[in-house]
Design brief:
- By secondary structure, the chain is an alpha/beta fold.
- The chain has 9 helices and 9 strands.
- Helix 6 packs across helix 8.
- The protein is globular, with a radius of gyration of 18 Å.
Length: about 270
Amino acid sequence: MGLFKRNPFGHILFLKTWLIRIMGAMTHRRYRGFNELQIEGSEIFKDLPGNNVLFVSNHQTYFADVVAMFHVFNASLSGRTDSIKNIGYLWRPKLNLYYVAAKETMRDGLLARILAYAGAITVERTWRAKGQDINRQVKMSDITNIKRALDDGWVITFPQGTTKPFKPIRKGTAHIIRQYKPIVIPIVIDGFRRSFDKKGVVIKKKGILQSMVIKEPLEIDYENDSIDDIVEKLEYAIEQHPSFLKVIPQEELEEAEELNKKRQWEY
């Protein structure tokens, strides 16, 4: 790797490598120590192509979710199936791994800016800004950047656009899937909301079992499935369809509702 070689977004890969190594070492015990991350299905990563893969997931904190995914993805690619034991996998991290995040969130402080350099594709929300409901056009530059990231590697996105559970899937994700035809891998996470504060920075409780389930590629007919069809498939795949409310323990529903009340200003 050349010392000043850059990715398509102008980030210096040498600097990005060291940021991932350092941040990974600092956060490892958050998923294997203070709390325990149970992983299922990570063997799928080894059989995926090098680019045009879109990971879709539910969302529970600003940062802890995606940091955990960086650990799991890199561990699996280095031969650790369903395990992040031994952080040697951080020495040669996957550098063409990106994630979609709100621009205003990734400008909120030094930590957010560091995490942004590690792989964020920042986009402007079309429905919410600075705590207020809005309605604005999608920026074509945001779509172009997602396409650029897919051309270069793998992209993680949280199609609900919020950490609040069972909120609607944003149709923009379905449009991207239909237009660019990526392999779509669903991921379902749990336990992060109980482990961390809403930003995913402060450990709120220790001894929490976190989970990450990586599913088989979603079956999508890119030519014939409508946008609504794709949205519904995403809802079921990441277990955020309203029907899943019936199988969630009442205490978890009450906890989620209480958290939602506290986060009215969040988005």
